[in-house]
Amino acid sequence: MHFLLPGVIAYLFFRKNWKKVWIIFILTMLIDVDHLLATPIFDSNRCSINNHPLHSYYAIFIYVLLLIIPKTRIIAIGLLFHIVTDALDCLWI
Ligand SMILES: [Zn+2]
Q1: In this structure, which residues have their CB less than 5 angstroms from ion ligand 1?
Q2: What angle, rounded to 10 degrees, do the helices at 57-68 and 73-92 form?
Q3: Quick one: pLDDT band at residue 93, thresholds 50, 70, 90?
């Protein structure tokens, strides 16, 4: 889910340079490093949204701002996509 779906989305919407877009999408998974600041590091029963600094509403607001700037738009899409998949995980709990 976290790796294949971004690739499909990159291919559908950015066919010209979908490999580059896919890599950017994968790199946005790095915001999960903020999970390392939490204890325990992995807890499947915990929703990451608003529980980690890079998954807070404040951070999401910044990602939306990045969406407006053309140069950072693809990164912003990847970050917001990451937030959406994490939010979907929360729904399963
Ligand atoms: Zn996350």
Answers
A1: 32, 48, 86
A2: 150
A3: low
Peptide bond into 70 cis (omega under 30): no
The distance in angstroms from the start CA to the end CA of the chain is: 16
How many angstroms separate the alpha carbon of residue 8 from the centre of ligand 1?
19
Q: What is the pLDDT of residues 14-62, one digit of tens each?
A: 999 999 999 988 888 888 877 776 666 566 666 788 778 899 999 999 9
Amino acid at 41: I
> What would the pLDDT profile of 78-89 be if each residue is shown by its tens digit?
999 889 888 888
Q: Enter the tokens of residue 85.
A: 């998949």
DSSP class of residue 1?
Answer: -
The rounded distance, in Å, linking the Cα atoms of 63 and 38 is 22
Predicted TM-score (pTM) of the model is 0.78
Q: How far is the CA of 12 from the centre of ligand 1 (A)?
A: 23
